[in-house]
Design brief:
single chain, 3-stranded antiparallel beta sheet, globular, 7-stranded mixed beta sheet, ALAT1/2-like, aminotransferase, 568 residues, alpha/beta, transferase, EC 2.6.1.2
C-alpha cells in the first residue's frame, strides 16, 4: 500500500511498515500522509515481536488484516462486553418454536409443501401465536370481515383521525366523525402525527376515568392517576423500574405467579431484580392460594426484599378467572405484608365460564373499606391488544395508580416523559375501547350485536377446546374460564424425556417442536411460562374459527397418540 493510501485508511493511527530497505524516506512519506507514528521494519527485524509491542499501546484499538488485505478491528460491543442481564432475558412466546414456525411459513411460500400440515393456510393460521391475538385476522378473510364489522366505528374513527379530509365525506357515520373531531382537537396541531402530553392525551385519560368509574359501580377515578402506555407491557415494565432497588439481600423481589406471562420474568431479568415464584393451584382450576403466597414470601425474605405482588386476572396462560373472595384474600395479604399490588387485567372482557365474573382489584379494594382503600398501593393495567378488540399492533394501553406516594408519582411522570409519549394512534384506539358507541348513536346496535357474537363465539370455543382435549389419554385440560388460551397438562413417556434432555431441551419444548415439524401446529411449551417440577404443559390459543379449531384439535390428538406410542 502507498503512503497516501495508508494515511486515508488509518489517519492519526500508529502503523508498521515492512520494507526491504531501511530508508528514512519511507518514514517521511508515511508521516506526511497523516499517520500518528510508525516503525520501519527490515527483513532482519523480529517482525512478530515488533507487532506485539505496537499493538499493546494503551488506548489503541487492535486492527487486523485479513488474507485479502482488508483491515478489520475488534468490536466494542461483543457477547462478552454487553449488558449481562440482557442475556438472561427469555421470552417464550417468541422463542425457538415460533422462530422455527416462521421459517417453515417462509419455506411454504417458496416451495410446494405436502404431508406436513392440513394446508398452507392452516400452518399460517397456527403460526399466528407469534403475533399473539391478532394473527388470525392477517390470514383469514372470514375472521377479518368479522372483526371489521365489529370495529366499523373503530376503523372509521382511525381513518378520520389519520386523514381528516375524510370528515367531509358522507360515507362515515356522524358518531364516528364526532369522536374523530374530539380526538383531533385534543392533539397538537389537530394531528395524530404530533407528540402528545407524556401522560397521554387529556380527553382520552378523562374517558378512561369515566370507563373505570362505570365498570366499578361508581368508585371514583381521577384522570390524573391515569397514564396512557404503549400497550400494557410498557406500563408494567415502568412500574417495575420504579420498584427495583437495593443490592444483595436488600435487592427488590417481585412475586409472580407460576405459570406466568414471560413479560414478567423477562423484565425482572433485565432489571436484575429477584423473581419470587408462587404457584397457582392447577387442581383447583389455577386458583390463587394465600397459604402458597405465605410460603413463597417467607422463603424469599431469606435472600431478598419482596416489595410487590403481581396478579394476572383473567389468567395468561392458564385461563382462570379469580373469584371475588380470592381477590379479597390477596388484598388482605398484600396489606398485612406491606406489598405493592400490580393487577394485570388486560383480559377483563374475556370471561366465558358460567358462574365466573370479572372483579377488578380496584373495585374490590374500595368495597373493603378505608382500612384497605386508603392504604394499599395498587397499579392496574389494561390494553387495546386483548378483550374483543385484538388491536395489538397499535400498542395502546393504560395504567391507573392508587395510593401512590406523591413524590414517587412525580418521579413516575418524569420517567414516562423520557419516552416523550405513547403512540398517539394507540391512544386514540384506547379511547375507542373505553368510549364505545352509546345507545341512540348510529353505530350502537351493530357494535353490540357483533361484540356479543364475538364473545359468545369465544365462549363456545373455550368449551370446545376443553372438551376435546380431555378426550385424549395423557392430556388434562382445566376449563378455560377466560382470556384466550388453554394450558393443558401432558404426560410424556420417560424415553421422550430422556431424549429431550440429551438434546439439551425441556421435554415439552421437544414435544412442541416435534408437533410443529410433523403437523404445522405452533404451540408454546409450558416450560416457557414456568410450571411445577416434573409437570409438562403447552399453551394453545382458542382464537381459530370453529371449523379450523376442530381440525387443529383433531391433529393435536392424533399427534399426541402417535408421539406416546413412538416413545413408549
Amino acid at each position: 500500500l502507498s503512503a497516501d493510501r495508508v494515511g486515508l485508511m488509518m489517519p492519526s493511527r500508529s502503523v508498521c511498515v515492512f520494507t526491504r530497505v531501511n530508508d528514512a524516506r519511507y518514514a517521511a512519506g508515511y508521516l506526511a500522509s497523516g499517520v500518528r507514528s510508525m516503525k520501519i521494519l527490515s527483513p532482519l527485524s523480529n517482525f512478530s515481536s515488533q507487532i506485539r509491542a505496537l499493538s499493546g499501546i494503551s488506548g489503541v484499538a487492535h486492527d487486523k488484516m485479513t488474507d485479502k488485505a482488508v483491515f478489520t478491528r475488534d468490536k466494542v460491543l461483543t457477547i462478552h462486553t454487553m449488558n449481562p442481564t440482557v442475556k438472561k432475558v427469555e421470552y417464550a412466546v417468541r422463542g425457538p418454536i415460533v422462530q422455527r414456525a416462521v421459517q417453515i411459513e417462509k419455506e411454504l411460500k417458496e416451495v410446494v409443501f405436502s404431508n406436513r400440515c392440513v394446508s398452507i393456510d392452516f400452518l399460517c393460521y397456527t403460526v399466528h401465536q407469534r403475533i399473539n391475538c391478532k394473527g388470525e385476522v392477517s390470514f383469514y378473510s372470514s375472521v377479518t370481515r368479522c372483526f371489521m364489522q365489529i370495529f366499523a366505528t373503530t376503523a372509521s374513527v382511525l381513518a378520520l383521525c389519520s386523514y381528516p379530509e375524510l370528515l367531509k365525506d358522507n360515507m362515515f357515520p356522524e358518531d364516528a366523525k364526532n369522536r374523530a373531531r374530539r380526538i383531533l382537537q385534543a392533539c397538537g396541531g389537530s394531528s395524530i402525527g404530533a407528540y402528545s402530553a407524556s401522560q397521554g392525551i387529556e380527553c382520552v385519560r378523562q374517558d378512561v376515568a369515566r370507563y373505570i368509574e362505570c365498570r366499578d359501580g361508581g368508585v371514583p377515578c381521577d384522570p390524573d392517576n391515569i397514564y396512557l402506555t404503549t400497550g400494557a407491557s410498557d406500563g408494567i415494565v415502568t412500574m417495575l423500574k420504579l420498584l427495583v432497588c437495593g443490592e444483595g439481600p436488600t435487592r427488590t423481589g417481585v412475586m409472580i405467579s407460576i405459570p406466568q406471562y414471560p413479560l414478567y420474568s423477562a423484565a425482572l431479568a433485565e432489571l436484575a431484580a429477584v423473581q419470587v415464584n408462587y404457584y397457582l393451584n392447577e387442581d383447583k382450576c389455577w386458583s390463587m392460594d394465600v397459604s402458597e403466597l405465605e410460603r413463597s414470601l417467607s422463603e424469599a425474605r431469606k435472600y431478598c426484599n419482596p416489595k410487590a405482588l403481581c396478579v394476572i386476572n383473567p389468567g395468561n396462560p392458564t385461563g382462570q378467572v379469580q373469584s371475588r373472595q380470592c381477590i379479597e384474600d390477596v388484598i388482605r395479604f398484600a396489606a398485612k405484608e406491606h406489598l405493592f399490588l400490580m393487577a394485570d387485567e388486560v383480559y377483563q372482557d374475556n370471561v366465558y365460564a358460567e358462574g365466573c365474573q370479572f372483579h377488578s382489584f380496584k373495585k374490590v379494594l374500595f368495597e373493603m373499606g378505608p382500612q384497605y382503600s386508603n392504604t394499599v398501593e395498587l397499579a392496574s393495567f389494561h390494553s387495546t391488544s386483548k378483550c374483543y378488540m385484538g388491536e395489538c399492533g397499535f400498542r395502546g394501553g393504560y395504567m391507573e395508580v392508587i395510593n401512590m406516594d406523591p413524590e414517587v408519582k412525580a418521579q413516575l411522570t418524569k420517567l414516562v416523559s423520557v419516552r416523550l409519549c405513547p403512540p398517539v394512534p394507540g391512544q386514540a384506539l384506547m379511547d375507542l375501547v373505553v368510549n364505545s358507541p352509546k345507545p341512540g348513536e348510529p353505530s350502537y346496535n351493530n357494535f353490540m350485536k357483533e361484540r356479543t357474537a364475538t364473545l359468545s363465539l369465544l365462549a363456545e370455543k373455550a368449551k370446545l377446546t376443553k372438551e376435546i382435549l380431555n378426550t385424549v389419554p395423557g392430556i388434562t385440560c382445566n376449563p378455560v374460564q377466560g382470556a384466550m388460551y388453554s394450558f393443558p397438562k401432558i404426560s410424556l413417556p420417560e424415553k421422550a424425556i430422556k431424549e429431550a434432555k440429551a438434546l439439551g431441551q425441556a421435554p415439552d419444548m421437544f414435544y412442541c417442536m416435534k408437533m410443529l415439524e410433523e403437523t404445522g401446529i405452533c404451540l408454546v411449551p409450558g416450560s416457557g411460562f414456568g410450571q411445577k417440577e416434573g409437570t409438562y404443559h403447552f399453551r394453545m390459543t382458542i382464537l381459530p374459527p370453529t371449523d379450523k379449531l376442530k381440525i387443529l384439535l383433531a391433529k393435536v390428538k392424533e399427534f399426541h397418540q402417535k408421539f406416546t406410542k413412538q416413545y413408549s
